[in-house]
């Protein structure tokens, strides 16, 4: 994602003056969804599993270690736009339905390979359109479930204590700025 | 030490000087006047913000914030302008729009900070001198009125304020962007150095230099140094950058001559028809809603461009039925803001073995290069722009919402990505009479003050300039070997750059301007405006440094006049 897209995304998340509705209005709009917004905290175990597929535990902590699911739920409930809320809840239902149909089990019961396959299905669906179409779609319909859970997992992880301090390099008080600094072995990105 | 008034203390209502507003220019007025021995009352409509003590978020980590610095839906809905420029890490320094409504004839993002220190707590800290290219521009092309001053008039005052502020930067010896005495510059990083070399080789008229900023690269006057955290907008516990709170107000307090009264909105300037002078100001206590009149020999209005004009417009008398000092009818008019919407972005393959350390609180600057000979010497618009930008290696935030996930993705997410540069033009806005503020005749705020109505739009000259910025930035990046070069225009509305200027312009002629060459209201000699309202044109440089220099200059003039018994 280039800077502009990411700015636009943040702007979209951050400055929803024109699409934002109160919690009540958001709920009213969503009443036809299988999952209601208030029920979302109950889906934390599922969201944690999906997030772990995106950022698995390796030699450094994974999404579950960072409790990314808490951030995702809080964000969707309190911060996301009306359109995004709707897409998220709808997408979560679709993912469950798809899992059941393909593997005859819950996502939590799938093995690592199956979980990745499922997420791959939704990612491919997302990116089968060209970037222009995706941009228009985003503008009209908001961010898809896949884009949201991917973005929120990354954001929740990289701003968490374990993500920032173990997977990334966190330097709260650098002291000075060194413009050209040789890349160190196993150099990690700066957390902030 | 000076006083801090709470509602019940200190019944004194007579002072030598009154300063309205404690932001970047009001802080300077308070410092200069108190240092010259004047008992000075500093009025601030917002709450007190004490340096260090009132920076509650300054040392928090990302995970300490409930929403990880993302605004809530409720905040976006109720406060769209505040949410655009702040989050939970610095929201406390911006006004709640619901408490301070205004009327927009066209969309205008009026970003306000009502508190002691004002927007000096959250400013961008870029400090550039103007030159005669800027002071002569109106005269040469006929837009607006002529500035009543030239560079030689303000140069000693740039020296004076810069010496106190502490500005890091690099001398470039450009006549149109004069050097100051700088603290050591911040580094350019590898990709910025690469761009600088490419531009030096390809363009005779352009160069890349480090931004000149009020961030202290070494300790200065008991403040700083800046520790390269780049969290300035939360208030700096190290005093690493210039603000009223960290710099001017402590000096003013130390004189023993300063009285600071927060929660004090000035509703009008009191004018005496017989004396033909202002005698003081009327204040409404924003908490108790009680009125108090304060009196002084000289009054500095530094409430910020739009609010300062509104105070004068609301100061009606038989002599000034249309607002204090408004013989010209220009009060409230000629509102300007820089545009900063257009630019380009690109990534670069290479320099993979280099990185940087620390978070520099600034980027680079490409000084103005258009129309240096005046007029439309090379392009289809008047005036010019400078380009600000920054280079970095892409990080985790550039990997949100991508196709990849899993172990390989995690590795990429946490490793430095390709180098990239983002750069955009900060452009001059011409002074248009029809860009203006007025007072509503019917609608009032919670304190009974008429609502401000803002009519502002960028026009053809600004539009043409933005087009040139986008394509020119893209050309420079492409020429330097960048790929994925993408020209953009964010189409920000007026106010978006937070450089409002011009509502009480300086000029030679009382019939066409509000202030004279000393920032003195033409027809009310003991009232001075030295914030952005005084600006006759906008140039393209960030304006705060010029406000500060004009303030120090006007204070010196005012005190000399006072001593001679002329005020």
Summarize the structure.
The complex is a heterodimer of chains A (about 190) and B (about 575). By secondary structure, chain A is mostly helical. In chain A, about 60% of the residues lie in helices and about 5% in strands.
Q: What is the percent of helical residues of chain B? A: 10-25%
Spatial gap, N to C terminus of chain B? 27 Å
Anisotropy-based shape of chain A: globular
Shape of chain B: globular
Molecular structure report:
- The complex is a heterodimer of chains A (192) and B (567).
- Chain A has 192 residues and is mainly α.
- Chain A is built from 9 helices and 1 strand.
- In chain A, helix 3 (44-54) packs across helix 4.
- Chain A is globular.
- Chain B is of the alpha/beta class and 567 residues long.
- Helices cover 23% and strands 19% of the residues of chain B.
- Chain B contains 12 helices and 20 strands.
- Chain B has a 7-stranded mixed sheet. Chain B has a 6-stranded antiparallel sheet with strand order 5-13-14-15-11-18, covered by helices on one side.
- In chain B, helix 1 links the parallel strand 2 and strand 3.
- In chain B, helix 1 packs parallel to helix 8, helix 1 packs parallel to helix 12 and helix 6 crosses helix 12 (544-563).
- The interface between A and B is large, with 72 and 65 residues.
List the helices and strands and how they pair.
The complex is a heterodimer of chains A (192) and B (567).
Chain A: H1 3-14, H2 23-29, H3 44-54, H4 68-78, H5 82-103, H6 112-127, H7 131-141, H8 145-158, H9 161-167, E1 178-182
Helix pairs in contact in A: 3-4, 3-6, 3-8, 4-8, 5-6, 5-8
Chain B: E1 3-4, E2 17-20, H1 24-35, E3 40-43, H2 73-78, H3 80-85, E4 103-104, H4 132-135, H5 137-141, H6 151-165, H7 190-202, E5 209-210, H8 244-254, E6 258-261, E7 264-272, E8 277-285, E9 291-295, E10 298-301, H9 305-313, E11 342-348, E12 354-357, E13 364-366, E14 385-393, H10 407-413, E15 419-427, E16 436-444, E17 450-455, H11 460-479, E18 483-489, E19 520-521, E20 524-529, H12 544-563
Parallel strand pairs in B: 1-6, 2-3, 2-10, 3-6, 4-17, 10-20
Antiparallel strand pairs in B: 5-13, 7-8, 8-9, 11-15, 11-18, 13-14, 14-15, 16-17, 19-20
Helix pairs in contact in B: 1-8, 1-12, 6-12
